[in-house]
Design a protein that fits this description.
31% of the residues lie in helices and 12% in strands. The chain has 503 residues and is an alpha/beta fold.
């Protein structure tokens, strides 16, 4: 990712031949194989089917995997590995042989719908850049000869770092060093009705920005209007890094006079584990938050500020944790599942359709955010135990959840109780930005949280939703109750102040 951009920036049908708002987006997964105990292709397909994953991207054209996918209907993007690019880009015959061996022997039984010719070629193996477009053309010509060009599109995946000055998005442009490649490449995509493949990683944008990009902005978390990024040229508001990067690509293409090429995001995700000292934001909660919000964002056909309602189909990186990858701890921990098919975390997908069956929102909890303003936390606690009608007797002195005697600990109990009482409905774990959803059970010792019982709450007629907007600790709880268990006068004052300020 280009540092100059980073400092400023912050599953269904493939896209049609031109931008259209009435087509549904899909979410798929990438299948990397750098796994020491890699499941066999039959096991992989069984997991895909169990999780209702209908789109996959392979980093090669593995014969056993393609055979296992036959008859499933799963839409498959196969890849020409980078190490084969030079040979294919210099020989029409070599490209035709590749298509005959890896495509023609599998279709129509295996539903291959796209071919990615190389991956991040311009930035990973720039010496092959001069033959990239010819490689796409040769592969496409072989498909034309086989009368498969209308059903199998050809493109190549780019790192988003090929885009410079990407915020504001309206000023973005492709690195002009690559104009001799990008211009004919875009002409090819336009003429064949294909799409631009783009890898979008807000995690790296956030990390390399050195705190210039707020974490909430990278994770699709709600932002107050004054925290949204505004493109001063278009006055478009950006609430997340993902949309800003995609729109930067749209504007970069329009700068070269290409305005009708859709974008498919071929890789996006967030690592669930990293080195505690150097990668503190690679956590299960952040990975869960990012991927859950990404899936909802894509499947809602939200589009981007530049192209609202236009599908931006996306492949999550990735299906399995790749423990054999070299590099930092985070490099091994981008997967949704381990090699045994166990979910690394549980996605929050309520209201997002049936994609990924490991949606276990019954196992989520609402907790106080770290580092939030203590007064706002106390006000939210008082609201939950007052107008929110939560039974907070468990945090009274001598009760199981009294210890630790801090505002944060007591608020976490009250927030989670309210969240489950309200059936974990959207907006019921916010409390003006001082609460967040997690998959980590906050129960401890004899203090068992409502979510630990795995019970869905029910909506209570006449009970308002928890206050919702944004802010960010610990200290002795100021909450006290009368003999009937209701919040004290001091708590009532706090609630009234809350209502006066925020509602």
């Amino acid at each position: 990712m280009a540092s100059s951009r980073l400092m400023a920036l912050l599953f269904i049908h493939f896209l049609p031949l031109a931008l259209a708002a009435d087509k549904d987006a899909f979410v798929g997964v990438n299948i990397g194989t750098a796994v020491s105990d890699m499941p066999n292709p039959t096991q992989v397909v069984a997991l895909l089917k169990a999780q209702q994953i209908h789109h996959v991207r392979l980093y090669d054209a593995d014969q056993a995997m393609l055979l296992a996918l036959a008859g499933t209907g799963i839409r498959v993007t196969v890849s020409v590995p980078n190490q084969q690019l030079l040979a294919i880009g210099q020989s029409n015959a070599t490209a035709a042989n590749w298509v005959a061996r890896n495509i023609l022997t599998h279709v129509p039984a295996t539903n291959i719908t796209a071919i990615s010719v190389g991956s991040e070629v311009l930035t990973a193996i720039p010496n092959a850049a001069p033959v990239l477009v010819s490689a796409l053309q040769y592969i496409h010509a072989a498909l034309v000869a086989a009368r498969l060009d209308s059903r199998i599109k050809v493109s190549t995946a780019h790192s988003s770092s090929v885009i410079l000055d990407s915020f504001p998005p309206s000023q973005a442009f492709f690195n002009r060093t690559w104009d001799p490649v990008m211009v004919p490449l875009l002409k090819f995509l336009q003429s064949t009705g294909s799409f631009l493949m783009l890898n979008v990683y807000p995690y790296y944008d956030y990390v390399q920005s050195h705190d210039a990009i707020p974490l909430d902005y990278a994770l699709f978390r709600p932002l107050p209007p004054n925290k949204e990024a505004v493109d001063s040229n278009t006055l478009l508001h950006y609430t997340n890094v993902f949309d800003a990067v995609v729109d930067a690509a749209y504007f970069a293409m329009s700068y070269l006079n290409f305005t009708n090429i859709p974008i498919v995001v071929t890789e996006s995700g967030w690592p669930s584990k990293g080195d505690p000292a150097t990668e503190p934001d690679a956590t299960i909660d952040n990975a869960n938050t990012y991927n859950s919000n990404l899936i909802k964002h894509v499947l809602n056909n939200t589009g981007t500020p530049k192209h609202p309602g236009v599908a931006v189909s996306t492949f999550i990186y990735e299906l399995y944790n790749e423990d054999s990858r070299q590099g930092a701890v985070s490099e091994k921990n981008w997967g949704l599942f381990d090699s045994n098919g166990r979910p690394i975390y549980v996605l929050h997908l309520t209201g997002s359709g049936t994609v990924l069956a490991n949606d276990t929102t019954n196992q989520t909890y609402c907790v106080a955010r770290d580092g939030v303003d203590r007064k706002m936390l106390q006000a939210a606690l008082d609201w939950a135990c007052g107008p929110g009608k939560v039974d907070c007797s468990a945090v009274l002195q001598g009760a199981p959840c009294y210890e630790p005697d801090t505002v944060a600990a007591h608020a976490t109990y009250a927030f989670d109780a309210y969240y489950h009482r309200m059936a974990m409905a959207e907006g019921t774990c916010d409390f003006n930005g001082v609460a967040t959803v997690t998959t980590t059970d906050p129960s401890h010792g004899s203090c068992i949280f409502p979510g630990s019982h795995g019970s869905n709450g029910t909506f209570i007629n006449g009970t308002s939703l928890a206050p919702s907007t944004n802010s960010t600790s610990s200290g002795s709880s100021l909450l006290s109750f009368n003999s009937n268990g209701y919040v004290s006068f001091r708590g009532l004052v706090a609630v009234l102040l809350w209502i006066a300020v925020f509602l």
